[in-house]
Design brief:
The complex is a heterodimer of chains A (249) and B (437). Chain A is mainly α and 249 residues long. Chain A is built from nine helices and four strands; from the N terminus they run ααααββαααββαα. In chain A, a hairpin with an 8-residue loop joins strand 1 and strand 2. The N and C termini of chain A lie far apart (61 Å). With 437 residues, chain B is mainly α. In chain B, 64% of the residues lie in helices and 1% in strands. Chain B is built from 17 helices and two strands. In chain B, strands 1-2 form a two-stranded antiparallel ribbon. Chain B is globular, with a radius of gyration of 25 Å. Classes of the chains: A mainly alpha (249), B mainly alpha (437).
Chain lengths: 249, 437
């Protein structure tokens, strides 16, 4: 086993970087943390725009469907329009042929590359991970994504970057194949919010947190009711127990 | 048991059932059976503390796992390509699927937490001693099956930790001399961790839950033969020592359940992923090893013992021995006194063992490097020394405190002490034992 892991560590490019430690992420107050937390929907919609305009050129979102976008406040027509700007393979039709058609609401987000090989080929050997679960797939996910997006900079003098790599202290090993994706005003927000790096990073985190955990607001709301119920029930059960045991003390 | 006190039988009485219930009871005495198991006809020591809630809680935790598991199994796809996506479908598209999955995942953690408290309560109060050795064994077999079941269940989502956990653990069997290599092939159902293993684990994960349920019933059967131990560790001597299970312990267990459900709900609704590994939200990738492969928290002490031995076969044997040594505890413990309350030295050793197991858990979750390695080895050595050396010796050397005459007299004195403490001022004489307490 140990031999196998060692062999993999040598063979798999990129793995050696994953072994290094990353800096602790910055600490941001998120609207969705805490027991009453919920998503900032306008921010999540702006985050969707950043994802569509920037992230989606490389990163898939394969577990989220276009119809889900109504959950963050898009109209069905808006969601339909976003879906229709991508094509999916369908068929066979009555002649037995396969054909391309615009994606519909029921489709999952269409990935930017046909397969992993195509993705690696287009990205200098690196495989841009799917973002559907990124918020849950990293420790301290929200802060991690925010820190990564805003953490790019010049490498310190003692750090030598591998070819094609970029310096980012929040990425394990401090270098990532992803060039800085967000720069001020790289998108133009329809609602007039200034598209600063900081704003865009926060908005993308709102969007990705929703993408990973769309039931979070329901869960928080339901949990509140369940806990109130259980605390009252627990009190009643304690009273019953006391009453039954009163002659034993 | 021949020595069963006659007066306990006086407590027994027939259920007087009429109508439909009576009709059923005459043909199948199910109500009497229930009444004898958890009803008014099951005499229970009157001095059980809240640590005795954990047996009933474990039963409820098992039922919760089975019920949520049945729902999840209806939507889960046991294929290498479909497993991860089917779990996401459960989380997103199945009605309340997220709730079922979070209850199941966190329920497993809490099930282990309960069973560990249950086990350490046994160690503290000496419940494993004569005549409850088989009861103890049945519990240990249930724990063993729980570990296997939980491990298999953790593999099912086919995330990174699922895959690499399965790889590391199944490879361990390769260390067994002669049959090891073939055993691993058999476990895999092929030449690598893949679909055959996933399907096999799915089938066994489902099956073992019901095997555990069956063994739990046998466990309760064995419990009823000699009835519950109690914090004093002395035998029931007469009806003054016992209370009917219902309503006394049904209400006490229900209150405990209420507290349990509050903790459960807080976990499920507000930090459902706190006990899990983020890596398991990354689909399994045979070409990318996670930086740290760690099991769930409840297996970390065993993982530390496994890694404490630098040799693979040695590690596997230590891991097996860590569980097997528990089976020998009723004979390794040479003291005739059950409860640690009356065993001043054993009582301290017990708490050192608890600390040692926590330390092992911490080491199991840390990378196997630097200072962690010798600490893990020391903690492992102490774990075995506790059972194999200290337990037999202390039983012989220690002089236990005097045991009370009976449960009833001890309870009476305890109540007297409590009332005395609650008296408002010095000089006020207690006038009657009745009233508030």
């Amino acid at each position: 086993m140990r031999r196998l892991v060692l062999a993999l560590a040598v063979l798999v490019p990129g793995l050696s970087f994953a072994a290094g430690e990353a800096d602790a992420p910055k600490n941001i107050e998120w609207t969705f943390s805490g027991p009453f937390g919920t998503f900032d929907l306008p921010a999540a919609r702006r985050g969707l725009q950043v994802y569509l305009d920037v992230c989606s050129t490389c990163h898939s979102l394969r577990y989220v469907a276009y119809r889900n976008l109504t959950e963050i406040g898009l109209t069905e027509d808006q969601a339909k329009a976003i879906a229709a700007s991508h094509e999916v393979r369908d068929g066979p039709d009555e002649t037995g042929a396969y054909f391309m058609r615009p994606a519909g609401l029921a489709e999952k987000f269409v990935p930017p590359f046909a397969n992993e090989q195509a993705a690696r080929f287009a990205n200098g050997g690196a495989y841009p991970p799917d973002l559907s679960l990124m918020y849950k797939a990293r420790p301290n996910g929200a802060n991690y994504v925010y820190s990564l997006l805003t953490g790019y900079g010049e490498p310190p003098a003692d750090v030598e970057l591998a070819p094609g790599m970029n310096y980012n202290p929040y990425f394990p090993g401090h270098q990532t194949a992803m060039p800085q994706p967000l720069l001020d005003d790289i998108v133009q927000y329809a609602d007039g919010t200034p598209a600063t790096l900081d704003n865009m990073a926060r908005d993308v985190v709102q969007f990705l947190a929703w993408a990973a955990e769309p039931n979070l607001p329901t869960r928080h709301r339901m949990g509140f009711g369940v806990l109130i119920y259980l605390i009252i029930l627990g009190g009643l059960l304690f009273a019953v127990k006391k009453q039954v045991w009163r002659d034993q003390h | 048991m021949s020595g069963e006190p006659q007066h306990i039988d006086d407590l027994h009485h027939e259920l007087k059932l009429r109508g439909v219930l009576g009709w059923i009871e005459y043909r199948l005495p199910v109500f009497n059976w229930i009444n004898n198991a958890v009803g008014t006809n099951y005499p229970t020591p009157k001095n059980l503390n809240y640590f005795w809630n954990f047996g009933a809680l474990a039963g409820i935790a098992l039922v919760i796992q089975i019920l949520t598991g049945i729902v999840l199994a209806a939507h889960y796809v046991p294929t290498v390509d479909g497993a991860f996506a089917s779990v996401e479908r459960i989380m997103r598209d199945v009605n309340y699927g997220w709730l079922f999955r979070y209850v199941h995942a966190n329920g497993a953690s809490l099930f282990f937490a309960i069973v560990y408290v249950h086990l350490f309560r046994n160690l503290y109060y000496g419940s494993y001693k004569y005549p409850r050795e088989l009861l103890w064994w049945l519990g240990l077999i249930i724990l063993l099956l729980m570990i296997i079941t939980a491990f298999m269940g953790y593999v099912l989502p086919w995330g990174q930790m699922s895959y690499w956990g399965a790889t590391v653990i199944t490879n361990l069997f390769g260390a067994i001399p002669l049959i090891g290599d073939n055993l691993v092939l058999w476990l895999w159902g092929g030449y690598s961790v893949g679909e055959a293993l996933l399907r096999g684990f799915y089938s066994l994960h489902y099956l073992l839950a019901f095997v555990i349920a069956g063994l739990a019933i046998v466990h309760i059967w064995a419990l009823h033969q000699h009835r519950s131990n109690n914090p004093l560790g002395i035998d029931i001597k007469g009806p003054q020592d016992v209370l009917p299970f219902h309503p006394y312990y049904t209400t006490k267990d229900l209150f405990g359940l209420g507290i349990y459900l509050i903790i459960f709900a807080a976990l499920v609704f507000y930090m459902p992923n706190a006990l899990g590994e983020p890596d398991n939200y990354i689909p399994a990738d045979p070409l990318q090893t996670p930086a740290h492969i760690v099991p769930e928290w409840y297996l970390l002490p065993f993982y530390a013992i496994l890694r404490a031995i630098p040799d693979k076969l040695g590690g596997v044997m230590a891991l097996a021995a860590a569980l097997l040594v528990l089976f020998a505890v009723p004979w390794l413990d040479t003291s005739k006194v059950r409860s640690a309350r009356f065993r001043p030295i054993y009582r301290q050793l017990f708490w050192i063992l608890v600390a040692d197991v926590f330390l092992l858990g911490y080491i199991g979750g840390s990378p196997a490097e630097g200072i962690y390695i010798p600490i893990g080895q020391l903690a492992t050595a102490y774990y075995f020394a506790h059972f194999l050396i200290l337990l037999p010796i202390v039983g012989k050397l220690e002089s236990p405190k005097p045991l009370p005459d009976s449960i009833a007299t001890a309870v009476l004195e305890e109540n007297k002490r409590k009332r005395a403490r609650k008296l408002p001022q010095v000089g006020v004489q207690p006038t009657s034992a009745g009233g508030h307490h």
